[in-house]
């Protein structure tokens, strides 16, 4: 079964790799860019905004998926409790 801690570890791992990739990509772009300082600064600013938007969107997606998973888990627990209660009544003969 998919464990909550596994999901959190996977999310942290994905975010870490995303950030690392962004940093490496930006560093390479800056070092290899045959542009003026002004154009390079604008490029960094644009890419930073894009990265921020991507992280924000990913965060919203993760939140929405987590909320759905919690709701489904809650429903499963309620269903299991109902089944348990029905079984208990059958055993008691109620």
Question: What does this protein look like?
Answer:
The protein is mostly helical and 94 residues long. The chain has one domain (4-92). Helices cover 90% and strands 0% of the residues. It is built from two helices and no strands. Helix 1 (4-32) runs antiparallel to helix 2 (37-92). The longest helix is centred in the C-terminal third of the chain and has 56 residues, at 37-92. The radius of gyration is 24 Å and the shape is rod-shaped. 0% of the residues are buried. The mean pLDDT is 83.
Summarize the structure.
This protein has 94 residues and is mainly alpha-helical. Helices cover 90% and strands 0% of the residues.
List keywords for this structure.
mainly alpha; 2 helices
Task: Please describe the biggest sheet, giving its number of strands, its sense, and whether it closes into a barrel.
Answer: none
Structure classification: mainly alpha
Mean pLDDT: 83
Shape: rod-shaped
Number of domains: 1
Distance linking N and C termini: 34 Å
Question: Got a strand count?
Answer: 0
Number of helices: 2
What percent of the residues sit in helical stretches (DSSP H or I)? over 70%
Radius of gyration: 24 Å
Secondary-structure element order, as H and E?
Answer: HH
Strand content: under 5%
Contiguous runs where pLDDT drops below 50 for at least 5 residues: none
């Amino acid at each position: 079964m998919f464990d909550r801690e596994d999901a959190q570890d996977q999310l942290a791992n994905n975010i870490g790799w995303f950030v690392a990739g962004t940093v490496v990509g930006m560093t390479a772009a800056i070092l290899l860019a045959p542009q003026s300082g002004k154009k390079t600064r604008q490029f960094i600013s644009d890419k930073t905004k894009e990265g921020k938007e991507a992280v924000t969107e990913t965060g919203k997606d993760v939140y929405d998926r987590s909320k759905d998973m919690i709701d489904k888990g809650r429903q499963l627990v309620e269903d299991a409790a109902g089944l348990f209660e029905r079984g208990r009544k059958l055993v008691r003969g109620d």
